[in-house]
């Protein structure tokens, strides 16, 4: 009988596992001497502090406060949109009652712990890969910069070579430009004073002008004599004598 009564006390009056998972509430003292719960905003007298801290209303308010502020372990849960009294685990996807006892049982279960370990391993692997990539990036950037400098240097060398070759070609073209020797040009230009040669040619033209005029005058006199001869032959001596007689009569 004594053992049975002890079991009843433990099961009935004793605290359950995870009942105080979120710890005690926080209180602030008001100027009027009353206390105010920071998480729920409930005001009370000093004597009701302990009873309120263990009340269902206070424990539910602590869950709501931790859920809205993403405080552990409630940061692994979210509100069930279909039921106000239920929570959904973000890690496993399971639905849990909104009570500290059920939350405690869920986060200590094998399914939750296995998923949590798997997630931690994935995060560690991601951190390692990110660290390796961060170490490789400076090397890659250095290689890229080195390649870029090499390309720029090669381009500069090519440009300098092209410029040098262009300068050499221009120099060779100036040297290879053909200058004909004096007196052997196709236009018979001996390279002398062209103004002097022009004046001499003008003088020679002036000297030749009288000769040309005499030749023209001689040709005209020859043409006139030939015309007179032709006329004398056509008219004859008789007609010429009769014309003379008529002219004498007219004068007398």
From TrEMBL:
Region (Disordered): 1-27, 127-252
Extent of Basic residues compositional bias: 139-150, 242-252
Biased composition (Acidic residues): 167-176, 202-214
Compositional bias of kind Basic and acidic residues: 1-10, 151-166, 184-193, 215-226
UniProt xrefs under Pfam families: SURF2
Protein name listed in UniProt: Surfeit locus protein 2
């Amino acid at each position: 009988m004594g053992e049975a009564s002890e079991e009843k006390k433990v099961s009935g009056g004793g605290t359950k596992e995870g009942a105080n998972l979120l710890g005690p509430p926080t209180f602030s003292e008001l100027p009027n001497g009353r206390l105010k719960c920071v998480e729920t905003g409930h005001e009370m007298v000093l004597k009701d502090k302990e009873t309120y801290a263990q009340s269902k209303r206070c424990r539910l308010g602590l869950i709501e406060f931790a859920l809205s502020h993403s405080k552990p372990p409630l940061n692994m849960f979210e509100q069930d949109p279909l039921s106000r009294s239920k929570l959904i685990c973000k890690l496993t996807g399971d639905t849990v009652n909104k009570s500290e006892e059920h939350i405690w049982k869920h986060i200590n279960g094998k399914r939750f712990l296995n998923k949590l370990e798997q997630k931690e391993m994935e995060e560690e692997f991601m951190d390692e890969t990110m660290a390796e990539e961060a170490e490789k990036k400076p090397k890659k950037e250095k290689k890229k910069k080195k390649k870029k400098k090499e390309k720029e240097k090669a381009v500069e060398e090519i440009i300098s070579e092209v410029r040098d070759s262009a300068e050499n070609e221009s120099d060779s073209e100036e040297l290879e430009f053909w200058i004909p020797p004096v007196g052997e040009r196709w236009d018979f230009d001996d390279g002398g004073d062209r103004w002097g040669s022009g004046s001499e040619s003008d003088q020679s033209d002036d000297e030749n002008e009288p000769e040309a005029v005499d030749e023209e005058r001689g040709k005209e006199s020859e043409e006139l004599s030939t015309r007179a001869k032709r006329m004398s032959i056509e008219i004859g001596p008789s007609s010429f004598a009769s014309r003379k007689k008529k002219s004498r009569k007219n004068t007398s």
